[in-house]
Design a protein that fits this description.
- The chain is an alpha/beta fold and about 300 residues long.
- The chain has 2 domains: about 1-225, Spore Coat Polysaccharide Biosynthesis Protein SpsA, Chain A (Alpha-Beta Complex); about 230-300.
- It has 9 helices and 7 strands.
- It has helices at about 15-25, 45-50, 70-80, 100-110, 125-145, 175-180, 210-225, 230-260, 265-300, and strands at about 1-10, 35-40, 60-65, 85-90, 115-120, 155-160, 185-190.
- α5 (about 125-145) runs parallel beside α7 (about 210-225) and α8 (about 230-260) runs antiparallel to α9.
Length: about 300
């Protein structure tokens, strides 16, 4: 087994060397081959220089993004350049404890494909960090059907095969367990240590709530309709057709029974616009179906995944 530890970093110059030291201390006793992949997400402080100082070490890979693309892009860069059978993500701010990596791997040894960390005793600000996070975790669990206490915890371990074909955009890194579950992965969650930040400042704010909500809509759509989008668009179209039909029928009834002119009520407009909207929705569904087929067939992707046999 080879282990790849992916560490995204943005303006963490004071945490680079302590993080490296703690990782070496935690990974060496595991008895497996490992690599550390530091991804500098366009830092504007001395992170570049500190990482370059580590780049000559055999077990360390360093990548520098041209600008601050965000944590999701940094994690994606790490995945693309990792060669390990197991991929572990961990923040560079030292709030995640590298010693918990062993516990994550132990859980994978029990047969799970993903092990997610749960910062049960968080050391963050209650109003701006902890409460919004709890609300987001509750919402994500309810909508996705995958119940985890802490989607926002970066410390997670994955078997390579469950995420190697996943492409991440926006703030999607927190939804990787959902993508894995979509591919049939077995997911576990364990309590991990969470420490107060000593150096640097948090890069997260309340504005992330809105991004997470919008990304969650995308994830929900992909979960249910990525292979048959016509079911969603067509269903909406049929609903609009029904509204148009009932509006038109009621309009004719008022005309015949009470002599009410078509132009006196808004029913004519409602019927017309509902019919047009329904037609557009169904046409969008057909376009989405063509795009879905183009996506799978042009890239040779399958609509299924086989179980990869593991040594017992």
């Amino acid at each position: 087994m080879k282990l790849s530890v992916i560490i995204p970093a943005y303006n963490e110059e004071d945490n680079i060397l302590p993080m490296y030291s703690e990782l070496v201390e935690s990974l060496a006793p595991l008895g497996c081959e490992y690599e550390m992949i530091f991804v500098n997400d366009g830092s504007t402080d001395g992170t570049y220089e500190k990482l370059e100082g580590l780049s000559d070490i055999d077990s360390v890979k360093v990548f520098h993004l041209r600008k601050n693309f965000g944590q999701t892009a940094a994690i994606m860069a790490g995945i693309d350049n990792a060669v390990g059978d197991i991929l572990v993500f961990i923040d560079c701010d030292l709030q995640n404890d590298p010693r918990d990596i062993k516990a994550l791997l132990t859980k994978l040894d029990e047969g799970y494909d993903v092990c997610s960390g749960w910062r049960k005793d968080r050391k963050d600000t209650l109003v701006t960090r902890t409460l919004p996070s709890k609300a987001a975790n509750f919402l994500i669990s309810k909508i996705s059907g995958l119940h985890l206490h802490d989607y926002g915890c970066t410390l997670k371990a994955y078997r390579r095969e469950v995420i190697e074909q996943v492409r991440l955009y926006g703030e999607m890194h927190r939804f990787i367990p959902i993508y894995a579950a979509m591919n049939g992965a077995e997911i576990a969650e364990i309590t991990v240590n969470h420490r107060e930040r000593i150096h640097g400042v948090s890069k997260y704010g309340l504005n992330r709530i809105f991004k997470v909500f919008l990304d969650l809509i995308v994830v929900k759509f992909l979960m249910k309709h990525s292979q048959k989008p016509i079911y969603l668009f067509g269903g909406c179209g049929l609903c609009f057709f029904l509204v148009s039909f009932f509006a038109f029928t009621f309009m004719v009834y008022l005309k015949l029974a009470n002599g009410v002119s078509f132009i006196v009520t808004p029913l004519l407009l409602l019927s017309t616009f509902s019919f047009m909207t329904g037609t557009i929705a169904i046409l969008l569904g057909l376009v989405a179906e063509i795009l879905t087929r183009t996506y799978y067939e042009s890239q040779g992707k399958m609509t299924y995944q086989l179980i990869k046999k593991r040594d017992c």
